[in-house]
Design brief:
This protein is of the alpha+beta class. It contains seven helices and three strands, in the order H-H-E-E-H-E-H-H-H-H. The radius of gyration is 15 Å and the shape is globular.
């Protein structure tokens, strides 16, 4: 969680950052830069069971729970996808399961991702969101059975 901010607040920050760019070339460059800053995923996690299905590129995604909050780590072999997953991690990581499951993630449409990404990338982005929400749901179910 970014300094106790809600998912909605972080989404607003992302929308604000993207509004600073005039062209989609600049926005893509920014996404690629975000991907370059994403911490690499340890090789032990780069296995088939951690791959996101539905992505044309290879994307590995893992989740961990600490004190009721879900934290995500990921990596991709494609620079633009690495940037996209980096954005999703920034918005969703560190929040409670219900917050993640119920997040509308309107920032994706508001910054123009749905109209400027190729169909395959757009499908991959949706697959990454779905996988992150599935992880949150799995932790929620796991915790409801252990209480």
């Amino acid at each position: 969680m970014e300094d106790g901010k809600t998912i909605k607040e972080i989404e607003e920050e992302v929308v604000g950052e993207f509004s600073l760019f005039d062209s989609w070339d600049d926005k893509y460059e920014y996404i690629i830069d975000l991907g370059k800053k994403l911490a690499p995923l340890a090789d032990e996690y780069k296995k088939d069971e951690n791959r996101v299905r539905g992505c044309q590129s290879t994307v590995w995604l893992i989740a961990d729970e600490k004190e009721g909050n879900i934290f995500f780590k990921a990596e991709s072999d494609a620079v633009i996808v690495k940037g996209l997953i980096s954005l999703l991690i920034r918005v969703l990581s560190g929040h409670k399961t219900d917050e993640i499951i119920n997040a509308k993630l309107e920032f994706i449409q508001r910054i123009g991702m749905t109209t400027h990404l190729a169909q395959t990338r757009s499908n991959g982005l949706l697959a990454m969101v779905k996988q992150m929400k599935n992880y949150a749901l799995a932790y929620k179910l796991k915790n409801s059975t252990t209480v």
